Each structure stands twice: as structure tokens, then as C-alpha cells.
Amino acid sequence: MAALATGGAVRRGVAPSFRRAGEPGLAALPGTRPSLRRGQLLLSSGVPSLDAVLGGGLAVGTLLLIEEDKYGIYSNLLFKYFLAEGIVSGHHLFVASAKEDPADILKELPAPLLDEVNEEETVFKSKESQDYMKIAWRYQNLPKMEASPAASSRFGHYYDVSKTLSPELLQSTKCHHFFLPEEISLHPNINICNMTSGYIRLLQSIQRIIYQEGFDGSHPQKKQKNILRIGIQNLGSVLWGEDISCTDNPEDIYSLTKFLYVLRSLLRMSLSACIITVPAHLIQNKAIMERVTNLSDTVVGLESFIGSERETNPLYKDYHGLIHIHQIPQLNSLICDVSDTKDLAFRLKRKLFTIEVHMYPV
Amino acid sequence: MIVRKRRRIQTLFRRIVSVGSLALLFHVFQGRFTLLRDTRTDGSFLVHHFLSFYLKAGCKVCFVGLIQSFSHYNVVAQKLGVSLPAAKERGQLVFLEGLKSCFEVLFKEEPPTGQPNPLQFIREGGSNLKALYEFVRTSLTPSESDSWKCPVLLVDDVSVLLSLGMRPVDVLDFIHYCRVTVCSQLKGNIVVLVHSSEDSDDTENELVVNALCHQSNLILWAEGLATGFCKDIHGQLKIIPRGPAEPSTERDLPRTYQYKIQDRNVTFFARGMSTAVL
């Protein structure tokens, strides 16, 4: 098997989540890019400047944790960018929320800016077809090779937040929903001691989708492999049945960390990636946030200027908030890519969400 | 019997500044408990070092990898010159992949015979790590056909057990049982990684870290630089020998080195002697 030759772990019936980039089967997955240095497959988070800061993108099988800003505006936006990127790249989606119906979330996704790209490509192609090969004329009639290894779409798109995704594009994507108030009636049949029932149901649901749709390699007859993008909104809030974000001494401090550990085991054994937004500013018990950080792969914290004195500070008038990269995963290698600077600020324009280095005192 | 080997090919640490303290990382002792500790940085490069070092030294290794998948350790071990699947096949390495066991205990039917899953406390609750200890004991107890040198237990990492609902006393009980079996009875070694931080709010974790510091024979403490992030110096390593001194090595005071991690090795230098500064 090709996986043996590349030295990846081979478990019977389960596809390894990290493989060498040279494997042809995985390189053809849409919307992904292999990271040759680490032998990982990378996905775009939906924001190209965030991909650059994270070292090229999000690795398949990992978890991106966003610590929400005070009003949840920009974290919600990053959440939507991630899902919109999945739709544009042709991935499957799994959206879970206890607050909003996932169908409503999906209706409000930003529309991608695809038109300009298409124009550039057609102009380029028409120029090329008129050149005859003078030296390598034997290759004239061979089909043109794709410059990038990804089969169809390019890696990382820009979105226009004032427009929403077209319903046709939404319909062509396979989306799975998990809305907690609707799932309460079903009885969970796995038993995890001392975990909030909402979390148990969510884990069960995710595992069922991964198994049924074959993201863990359990249905080898399906030729076309795909990626599952999981988005969980507002995890740890009161609506999930937890009290860590509303009291200083919560009753059960282990539910969230156990959930993240089991989720990690599901992600590592399947072709999936997950984004979770957590209201970190509401969780008073900082020990929980330390443990949550240790159990996540990539951790990004957002701090918006809304309502703070920096909003009117002329030094920060160009930016909408600060972004803190707390952790980047160190997978398949001894070293990890850390960006050189730690002072990053973000700015949201209608068609662009950029992350830039800022020089001002914090 | 103490085995000493000098290795020149594909070693993890090169450019050893002084042989004194760093040589402690290249010596196969017997009956020692080594604590790996990290603060403000990731100390897993030490885990990779010890895994490849003990496998090359011919010891039987039981690796409890709770936090990452097997393929991650495998890829890094290959860069350091060791093949984990081959070690598993010849019986030298027993690898517990925590993430996979967790999945099996929750989502798969339990097999009627055979050993209980070492992570069954996730499903059943209770607060003891007895099944995990039994796994370690059966893996490292030598059978008649075994010809390996001393057994070694590596745990990456202990702080995860606290996140999974274990109380500090359960974790310390587990370590104590392992020390009795592996260090005293089988004359083997234990290497354990914990995360810690200054002014941490996680009092349970600090309790476990302090208790393990007192029990250990050697502490390797990897810290991020207190002055902030630097591209050329990834951190500093404090080597703190504790406990009775071996007759053949000198008893050292704690030494501190700064290090930079590269793709296949780690370079050490004395403080202030980084190439970025000189």
C-alpha cells in the first residue's frame, strides 16, 4: 500500500490522518494543499491572511479554537468564513449550535468573490493558445497540466460580507445540522461518565456522520474522498447545559475538556477539520481555559475595540481589534512555524479581512 | 549493570558545550525517575529524544502517548533514525495510542475476552487509573524470550489525565504504582512529561507537578525565554539532578543551557552565546 511506503501509520480499516504529501489520492482533494515540509494536508480557514499567520493553513485532522471577542461579532465572522470556504471548495459541512438554527447560519454566509478570478483566467488562457511550441513541438498536442496540485478550485478565497451566498451553491453542498434544542428528544446510546448530555449527543452525531459518509476510510468503495468541515458555535456557553461561563465555582469542570479530548480522537482519525468558538471572556475559572488550550491545536484569541477606549484612540483608527495567536500546532516535526511578530491587529473591510502587524503600544 | 554508549550518528543533540550535565541525557541508568517539565513552551522535543534514545539503546519501551496520534511520533522518530512500526513488530515497543483507545472505548463494542481497555475510566468514571497501570505492568514485565535491556516507561503527558476527570491523588497513585513496579522491581526507568506555568490558576496541576518534582531523580525543565519570543533561541533547558548521585558521575549543581530546535536536532549553547548574538 502506498501508505506503507511513505512510512505513515497503517491501521486496518482506518485511514491515517497525516500522510506524506506525495500520495496521489489525497493530493487530488479539492480545496487542499499539501505542506511538503511536514507531510500534512492543509485547508484554508477562509481568511487568506489568517492562513499566512498560521503557517500556510489549517492541517486536516486538527482543531481551530477561537476565543470570542466580547460581543462575538468578529468570531462569528471567522466562523462563517470557515464554513463559506468549505462550500466554495466543495467540502461537506457539519454545523452545530445551541443558539441559532444551523439553517439560518448557512443562509447568512458571505458570498465569495469569484468573478474577478474567472476573468483573469480566461484572458490568460486565450493568450496561451496562440503560441506554437518551436522547440518542444512534440509536446504541442499533449493536454495542459494543472499548475497547482489541487484539482479544481484554488486555495483561499476572498468574501464580500455585504452579499450572501447564492442558494444554488448552498444546495449543491452536503450540510449536516445539529441544533441542540431539536436533538434533546433523542436518547444518547453512548455512555461517557459525567459529561453534559448536549456534548454527548454532539459527539455521537459527529461520529455517526464520519462513519456513515466514510471520512475515516471505512467505506473504501467510495472513490471520491472529501473533507468534512465541522463548525461548533459558542461551545461552553450556558445554552449547552454548562455552567462554567456563568459561575465562579462550576459544578462540573471536566465536561468541556473531556469533550475536546474525544473530539480530538475523532478528528485525528478522519479527513476533517473543526472550528470552535468559545466565550473565553465569560469563563472565570482560568484553569479551564489553560486546559482547553492544551487540548486544542490552533488557538486564536480575538479582542475587538468596540466599547473600549481604543475605539476612539487615533492610533488604532485603522483597525477593528487585536488578534492573538496563542498556539500553533507542532505536528509531525520537532519545530513549529511561529510568526516572527506577536503584535497583530485585524481590520474588516467589505471585501477583505486582513491581519497586519501593528506598531503601536498595547 | 550500567550501559554507556557514545553515539555519533543521527543523535538529537549536537554541539554539547560541556559534557557534565548534558551527558545525563545519554546515560542509560537503572531505576531512575526523570521528570520533563515545560513552562511557556513545548517540551515534547525531549519526549522524542528519550523515545529514540532508549529504542536505540536496546531497552524495552512502553510509551503511553495520550495527546498525539501514533503517526506524529512515527514521523519525528524517523527523522531521528528510529522506525516505530519496526520496533513494535519485534516486540521492543509497546505503544498505547490514547486517542485511538478513547475512540474504541466509547464508540466500539467491547470485546468479550482480552484485556480491558486502559482508558475505560473515560466511560465508566470512578477515579482510578488501575486499568492503565495494569496495562503498563503487563507490557513491561519481561517474558522468557525477551532479551531487551532494562524496561522504560514514557508518558506523554500527565496533565491530560487531570483534564479527563482524574483527581491529583489518582494521578499520583498511578505514578507511585508505576515507580514501584518499573523502578524498584524491574530496575527500569520512567520518563514523564508535565506542563506547568508560573502563576497558573490550575492548582491541581501545580500540585501534581510539585509532588512529581520531589519524587524525581532528574528534572529537565524547558522554559520559554522570560524576555519574550526570539527566533534564534527557542528556550532554555535547566538540568536539575536530584537524589543519590551515581558513583561514576559527578554530582552537579543545576545547569542551564539555551537551545534552538531544528528539523532533526537541537543545538545547545551557554546563555548569551547564541549565534544571533555573537
TrEMBL record, chain A:
Keyword annotations from UniProtKB, A to Z: Cytoplasm, Nucleus, tRNA processing
Subcellular location field: Cytoplasm; Nucleus
Main location: cytoplasm
Any Gene Ontology biological process: tRNA wobble uridine modification
Involved pathway(s): tRNA modification; 5-methoxycarbonylmethyl-2-thiouridine-tRNA biosynthesis
Family: Belongs to the ELP4 family.
Function: Component of the elongator complex which is required for multiple tRNA modifications, including mcm5U (5-methoxycarbonylmethyl uridine), mcm5s2U (5-methoxycarbonylmethyl-2-thiouridine), and ncm5U (5-carbamoylmethyl uridine). The elongator complex catalyzes the formation of carboxymethyluridine in the wobble base at position 34 in tRNAs.
Name of the protein in question: Elongator complex protein 4
Annotated gene: ELP4
